[in-house]
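Tutorial handout. Part one gives the primary structure; part two gives the three-dimensional structure as tokens.
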Amino acid sequence: MWKRILCAALCVALCCLCSGCSGYKSGKTFTYPLSQNVTSLDPQTASGSGAEMVIDSLFEGLCRIDQEGNVIPGAAKKWEANEDDTQFTFFLRSNAQWSDGTPLTAQDFVFGITRALSSSTGTAAEELMMIQNAAAFSRGEADASALGVTAQDEHTLVIRLEESNPDFPALTAQAPYMPCNQAYFEACSGHYGLSSEYLITNGPFTFGSIYAWQTDSGKRSITVTRSDTYRGDRKVKPASITFLIDYDDSWDTDPVQALVKGEADILPVTESPAADAKEQGCGILELDDAVTGLLLNPQCEKLENTTLRSLFFKTLDRAALLAQRLDTQEAPGIMPACVTLDGEPYYGEGAQAYTLQDSDATQGLSSLLSQLKLEQVPSITVICLDDPDSVAVTNCFLSAWNASLGNAFNLERLSYSQFQSRIASGDYEAALYTLRARGTTPYDVLRAFESTASPTLLQSEAYDQGLLSLEFDLASYQELENLLMEQYVFYPIFQDLTYYATNPNTRGIAVSPDQSIDFTDARKR
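Part two.
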């Protein structure tokens, strides 16, 4: 008897001890800074990484992307595809609700997608153009009834595509595919998504009051709270998340201290600060979602000519560039390691989808300069992050060009926030830039170069048309990738990682290759 009592007591003590050791509790608040201001949270029209980050917490699409890059259920508990992957049927959770208690239905997704394609939104999101008759509808050449989006019943949504695309479910995690309640939208009389007073949500978080979105200069922030009406397959553990738009500049220059002090709970960091953060007890999250290379701005006057841009690629010494970061894998092309095609790696063994070095590239330089009415190759400045690796790689660019192009070229070091601002505004000639997939499909990466995208500024009608008519198979992707290579806008060098560091007193924050941050399992001591 006493042995059983003693055993039970020991078990209780051990449980308490383990609980005390972990000490991470639900119901806490979390803070994350946004790199851009937010003017709208309407998923069908909002733009910018800041708005996308908040929308990911407020709304849930048919599917989600987890931290491993897998497509998992969101508002749809399951889905089915026909034999040739041109039609997908999504089965919604029968108990799903909006934050005001209204049932979430398949018609809400039909209305949301139709709005995103309507000319009245001014967006016509490219990721929706693969839907049957989407392009014709967006141009006003077809009625909404012709769109390949149908509510079969309250909880069954059917989407028909123009071309076969086995990776289509991954795209439904993106903002334009989010639902929109038509009755609520129309009642907002043009204010939908412009303040916390005019938005209902279906995601794990919602607005706790009409004051949750602060827009006063110097105090701008958006606070979302745990939704009592969310009916997904995950339990939401935080009480709230505050997305700060105005925050201390030191968070950018010294992110590790901001985390250690508990001022922020997760911040993007580069490789060197990530190592420092780990030493100081921070958690480190990694995504193999990036390729780092040389980005040229074809919209700046010095680099308008495609042939001139090609010289900046063909005269690079690839071996010397790779030698600057011997611990980093070479990039076969623009597609990061996280990108797959029908479940398989995009690049095969030995792939070389980049501009090859050409020792004869400058033989026609005099003729080209004469044609462009230039005395010499324009001197350009390459912006880069102010860290030793970035500076070393950029100096390799300059060394190769100084030796072969008959002019001197420049380097400009910038802090993380300065660099992001310059890129976002298009205020650069060239950059050592890290291109992130923002998804797990080749289409996600190729979209980064369309005319409406930032930062590539390509503005190529031929490329846009190629993206629009994509058939979503390897041959079609490779054809568009080759067209992009001929534009000489991005020269891939390194397969890279995206790093995030977390507050030492937090657990459970996750990041995904689509650049979303999932706070639903976040706990804190």
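Part three, for discussion. The radius of gyration is 25 Å. Confidence is low (pLDDT under 50) at residues 1-21.
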